[in-house]
Amino acid sequence: MADVNRGNRPLSPHLQVYRPQLTSVTSILTRITGNALIVSALLIAWWFLAAATSPDYFATANGLLTSWFGDLVMTLSALGLWYHTLAGVRHLIWDNGYMLDLEQAEKLGWAVVIGSVVLTLITIVIV
What we know:
mainly alpha; 3 helical TM bundles of succinate and fumarate reductases; 76% helix; extended
């Protein structure tokens, strides 16, 4: 059925008038890091398959993953893994009904962002 009242309905806020909030940005980043982790998992699986295939193929894969570009990708993957993990813990806290008011949710969002950076730096130092 055609909507005859199409011109009288209010429009939802668009990105140009909507001010992003920390909780919405961290939610979007959680989705992005989840998808990026799939790519890094595929790279690691490729590295293992290359190791099982032949020494020449492994040298190619290992050369890429141990280059500056591979180091950058793996460092960002570690950051994404820590971020995604801490964001998942945050959602578990919210699922239990805790820290849902705006002030606590913002603090929890900053804890996820700062915690993921700190844990990534610790990971880099240890590994």
